[in-house]
Amino acid sequence: MPLALATALAALAAPASAQTDDTAPFYAGGSLGVTRVSNVYRQATDAKDDSVTSVGLLAGLDQRYGRQHVTLDGSLQQNRYSTNQDLNYRSHSLRAALNWQTVGDLSGVLSAKSDQSLADFNLGAGVNPVLKKNIETNDEYQATARLGLATRYILEAGWNHRSRNFSAEEYDRFVYRQDTGSLGLYATPAGNVKLGLAVRHTKGQNPRYPVGVALQPDPLDPTKPQLVVVSQPNDYSRNDVDFTTRWAVGGHSTVNTRISRSRTKNSLDDILRDFSGTTGSVGWNWDVSRKLQLSLQYSRDTGQESVVRSADLNRVYTSWQLTSNYEVTGKISLNANASSRKGRRTSSTGAVVPDAIDNTDSYGLGLRWAFSRSLILSCQYDHVNRDNSVPQYVFNASSYGCNGQAILY
Q1: Does the record's keyword annotation contain Signal (predicted)?
Q2: Residue 228 pLDDT > 80, yes or no?
Q3: What domain range includes position 59?
Q4: pTM to 2 decimals?
């Protein structure tokens, strides 16, 4: 997706998800946004700029039924480019969750989400930049059950299904589906400390992973063979042992950590090397004051398990992200973010160099004005810089725009 267009659309929908309360369990509304993008296709040279207008519908539900709590948030946008009109597309975002609880110590969550948007035009990882409309779809379903064995102990079991699809066949290697099951025991030895030990098992598949090229007869002219990409399924499995901690410091700061021993095996082991190593993450949320909040996240993991959506399973990423929010007044707030990610290829046939780099740095600034409970205006500026061993993957891009929404209850 063009830089920050996803952020702009999220800014339209996100505020609405928190608009419901006990007296107004549902909402509906509309949104309008305009974003200027400096480098639509994220090209190293000959960058093309354009303006994108997004018109959307918003709706949601937040309702309690006894011990059960149901939430639903959805948005649908029509996105139109001023110049590159062949990229016009529809996007959507849907979130649903049921927080359930029995009379005893058994509780849990059932959730589902689905997103559709314009994919990044320049993912890298051996794929040439795509200069056409490419729709990306991500779906995820989760089920979690918790049993409180005592006041200090919780047994938790979970299941997660994720899938990703693209409309452009050039992105076949990034298509996947996977299921993960987990079982963990969590203890609270002190009021401000929580410890956890869990095991996870993941089974997945890349249904169309490219393994080479071959000559095949042209259907229109059999005398002229054509070069086509040959794909095969890659079945993979992953086992993790997770040690987690949660530490609340002084009531204003919380630190979350995860250290995992991870092992991944691929059926296409002649192309994709199996991974074995230590992964993990650290998160720090700090309420500096009533008006200022800071959040810092750091992670090291393989592509599909990290926050880097554009990664494939053949890379290890280290990334960090800093976000902040400052309430200037009761109606006006400022936000800022900065992030960096560094990719390392564990193996890949046809790699330009074995230690190829893929580093991306970005930052953003935003302003949000809640004119009233029903009317919200937000403006955002974002910039991203990417450095890569492959020249065609290097680019700079920025965007800025404003978005408004009106909500009815």
Answers
A1: yes
A2: no
A3: 5-408
A4: 0.84
